TrEMBL record:
InterPro entries: AL/BT2_dom (IPR010496). The lineage of its organism: Bacteria, Pseudomonadati, Bacteroidota, Cytophagia, Cytophagales. Keywords: Signal. Coiled coil: none annotated. This is DUF1080 domain-containing protein. It comes from the Bacteria. Residues 1-23 form the signal peptide. Residues 24-277 form the 3-keto-alpha-glucoside-1,2-lyase/3-keto-2-hydroxy-glucal hydratase domain. It comes from Rufibacter roseus.
Length: 290
């Protein structure tokens, strides 16, 4: 009798699990860029020194600004049934989400176009996904982006961390020790601060290069929960970060939510399959990284 009751209990509970809410992927890209806004800075030249550029009369030149009509820096293409965002790169700036996000898993694919522009014509192609973006655009060195954390996208450097404006984060150091046991073991090192208030430049290199060869589509994933983040390239964790913050008037303040920016940074870049979903916790498969 007891066994029958137990069986009935199991049968009763089992269907209830199908009603538990499941996180769903939400597409962020459509042909009208309906979930995004744009900001365009300046047509930067070689020798830019971080100051607002001046015209021939010595007056400050205004940035192109928000949501410039008929701009061609951020355009959407339809190819073989796929929706693709083309970022021309010719003007520094960003396309950024209208909505703020917190505790999420973001994924997208990118590949490079052929064109490069000043001031990076002779440098590696460069772009990036900026997260936890707050405040006004144009507060960084290039006068192009919001205060944020950066998931770097660059030839041979995708997954690097950069701080934007006065942000900072602690990165689990990559310190090779012979023999190298595995990637997880190599990441079990102290966290080291980079960015505002740390005394270190605001960037840190990823653990390894995982980009697709021959300019194939590379998939990147950003997982961020609370003050922690993971940069993942083609399925491999290449950067582990925590204590996301920014410094204002000498005081560190938490930075764990905000808008998402995709950079225009002097290189033609294509993006597709931009998807996001909310997460209730840092996924268990990645818990050992922290």
């Amino acid at each position: 009798m007891k066994s029958l009751r137990a069986l009935l209990c199991i049968l009763f509970l089992f269907p209830l699990t199908s009603f538990l809410p499941k996180a769903e992927w939400t597409p962020l890209l459509d042909k009208n860029l309906s979930q995004w806004e744009t900001y365009l800075s300046y047509r930067h030249k070689i020798g830019y020194n971080g100051k607002v550029p001046l015209d021939a009369q010595g007056k400050e030149i205004a940035p192109l600004g928000y949501n410039v009509k008929r701009q061609q820096v951020f355009t959407v293409l339809e190819e073989k049934g796929e929706t693709i965002l083309r970022v021309s790169g010719e003007v520094y700036g960003c396309v950024f989400t209208k909505q703020e996000y917190q505790n999420y898993h973001l994924k997208l694919k990118y590949k490079w176009g052929d064109k490069k522009f000043d001031p990076r014509k002779d440098l590696l192609k460069d772009s990036g996904v900026l997260y936890h973006s707050i405040g006004k655009a144009g507060v960084d060195y290039w006068r192009a982006w919001m205060l944020s954390q950066e998931f770097q996208i660059m030839e041979g450097h995708t997954g690097d961390y950069w701080s934007i404006a006065n942000s900072a984060m602690d990165v689990r150091a990559f310190i090779p020790e012979p023999p190298m046991v595995n990637a997880v073991a190599s990441l079990r090192q102290p966290f080291i601060g980079f960015g505002a208030g740390t005394g270190r430049d605001g960037f840190c290199l990823r653990t390894e290069d995982r980009e697709s060869k021959n300019n194939g589509w590379t998939e990147i994933e950003l997982i961020t929960f609370g003050d922690k983040s993971l940069h993942i390239v083609n399925g491999q964790v290449v950067m582990v970060l925590q204590n996301s913050r920014y410094v204002e008037n000498g005081k560190s303040l938490p930075l764990s939510k905000g808008k998402i920016q995709i950079q225009s940074e002097a290189a033609e870049t294509y993006f597709k399959d931009i998807m996001i979903k909310q997460i209730p916790e840092m996924p268990k498969k990645y818990a050992s990284y922290f």
